[in-house]
Amino acid sequence: MVGCALMNRLLDRPSRSLNRVGNRETHGLGYKRVDGDPNVAVLLATMDATAGWEATRRLRAWERDQLRLDGGQRLLDVGCGLGDAALALAEDLGDDGEVVGVDASAEMVTVAQNRASAARCHVRFAVGDVLALDEPDDYFDVARSERTLQWLTDPQAAVLEMVRTLRVSGMISLIDSDWSTFTVDVGDDDLAGRVREAMHTERGRPSNIGRRLPELVRAAGFEVLAATTATQTWKGWNPDQSPAPDGCFSMSSLADDLVDAGQLPPADRERFVSTIHQAARDARFSMALTMFAVVAGARTAMD
Ligand SMILES: C[S@@+](CC[C@H](N)C(=O)[O-])C[C@H]1O[C@@H](n2cnc3c(N)ncnc32)[C@H](O)[C@@H]1O
């Protein structure tokens, strides 16, 4: 559990300082099971950090433009995390609208509920599973999911479950990262190549789901109305102050992934980490990740 003092600090959004709460070695950022994770405070705080990424802000603004929500509409956000994206969209729904956020993590939902107090429309955040939503059929005007499908064993089943809750005219909106686009540049081609190779291979989760979002909505009987991408870049970071670049996993954790993927001999792990840390200290560090977004409508609604 996140203790009271820590939760209060989370609610005040001091995300950068909380990024340092994590254990350097376990700062791996896994969102399959947030509650009970020894670094739960870091997992929550990282959601604030990633909400501040330029790429996230651009994709959320793009989504809002595409959806053009009306007063009185109903929005479902699955894997809603701290609820900030849903609450921002709630502003477009007027007093009569409704927002429901569902997340598997009670820790996330507690923060989202606290942040919901200023919303005008009816807002409900609840613990639940995107694969078996406790929501009615044919109810919502929009179902959205952001950076959650990459943590699911069956993202297609999740999209079908979202579709089940939608009205015939409803729209689906998906935003997700594609970790096969992840690059680390410290002026070392061998190191960059190992990272690229390791990230191309999915291990235990659909980490490269971003580019497959159009396939997911088409397989659910939807047509892509609009699609875009945004690339988050990190140009600087002080490894002596934080184990990880803003909102990202630590380089020790990245090294562990490379070892698991067979791209790095265990004996080279420390050298890999120190090479990146030194490059960051010398301002020779950059990193990039592309996120994808689609907004789609049901084929039958458009015929
Ligand atoms: C990386 S976070 C993204 C949170 C939020 N959508 C955002 O973009 O800030 C992934 C979220 O998915 C949630 N999650 C993972 N598996 C889930 C499931 N089966 N059902 C509902 N939520 C799930 C996690 O608890 C976590 O809050």
Q: Which whole number gives the mean pLDDT?
A: 88
User: Which structural class matches the secondary elements?
Assistant: alpha/beta
Distinct small molecules: S-adenosylmethionine
Query: Which stretches are poorly predicted, pLDDT < 50 over at least 5 residues?
Result: 1-26
Q: Which H/E pattern describes the elements?
A: HHHHEHEHEEHEHHEHHEH
Order of neighbouring strands in the sheet with most strands: 3-2-1-4-5-7-6
Individual helix count: 12
Give the strand content.
15-25%
Global geometry: globular
Please provide the count of β strands.
7
Terminal Cα span: 50 Å
Helix content: 25-40%
Gyration radius, rounded:
19 Å
Biggest sheet descriptor: 7 strands, mixed
